[in-house]
Amino acid sequence: NSRTMSLLSQLEKINLDSVLGESDNARYVTSKILHLVQSQEKTRKEMTSKGSTGIEVILATLEVKSFHLCGYGCIVSFAFYHWAFYYEICCGGRRASVLVTKGGTQILLQLLLTASKDSPPNEELMVLLHTLLAKIGPKDKKIGMKARINGVLNISLNLVKQNLQNHRLILPCLQVLRVYSTNSVNAVSLGKNGVVELMFKIIGPFSKKNTSLMKVALDTLAALLKSKTNARRAVDRGYVQVLLTIYVDWHRHDSRHRYMLIRKGVLQCIKSVTNIKLGRKAFTDANGMKILYNTSQECLAVRTLDPLVNTSSLIMRKCFPKNRLPLPTIKSTFHFQLPVIPASGPVAQLYSLPPDVDDVVDESDDNDDAETESEIETENDDDKDQHFKNDDIETDINKLKPRQELGRPIEELKMYEQFFPELSENFQEWDLVSKEPKPFVPDANLSGPIVVPTASEE
Asked: Where is the composition biased (Acidic residues) (predicted)?
């Protein structure tokens, strides 16, 4: 019976009418709803209350193709609704989940596809559509597949390519690309269209302007580099050295530690690219071990920079050369010298290697030359180290058990038997009264005579 319900009822009737002339009425009703949403808290609660059909009516209006002209007004009211409940979305996401269950993701993707066909596309509409998709995207686990099926995967990428200087537009586009990239198939497809090269144009060179854009671009790049195909592409183009240079620049200029999240984003990109063997080799060749070690030493005094130290430690542990024991070089803290080194054979070859040679062959990803759509990549590996197969571990317990040898012969040790009678094998039970050994009484189940004790013994 309220004004809002009356307007929603009118909009619902307009949606049922296929007359093109009704688009002006739809625009008028939508603008009224927008005004009420902006001015009254009661209206916002009324549209999102349980049992209300306000969201369904707005989504239905967006879905009707004949009312494309009034779509902008609906999107504005929809966007304001999201901003008004930004805190609730961040805390619980209940309202964003409602939009997903109502089919809001599919409708927004279809509207994005329709709006992209305009030449040039409406900038305001693109900003609002990408803002909404970036907010409800994390609540929809299948948004990557839906975007690929609807053919809108490259729309956001093309907008970024054509508007590199328009930070207001490319920021929500990058947020949507970050959501798309959580799907491994989408990451490979975007990588083939040049998204990796595009990200490096945005994150470099060093600048403290538009740090929010820099942070989103780094998060997007880290998600893309989890794909092994994209990681190889980054290594082939020499981007590992670029990432290390960017990290050193931010480390030197961020003296007050205000941009710790950006520095961590660069480390996450390095961590993703070093998941493959080529990335680890490129990292070592670029003197990455020394760079991360020196920067980590400077960050130890500040507790807020512990995430940087932890991530750097994971990267260095992952990329440090592996060697078999015993180590005859300075690489090892302890020196294990073999009693006898054969003149020829594999052991002699290991000892003859120069100090800077990694004698453990890394075959972690030799068989992963191509990625398929069935590949599933983990999404919570930011805080887990990469595990590599180590065939050099001995599993035979008999070989691992050390041999114990006496320092003196047995004959010399017999002179101490009288001092340690409990160590001898001749154990007898003594009678405390007679001070003599008790007669042996075998078990009843055993064969042989049974000795019965006398009355005095009892």
From this structure: 356-383
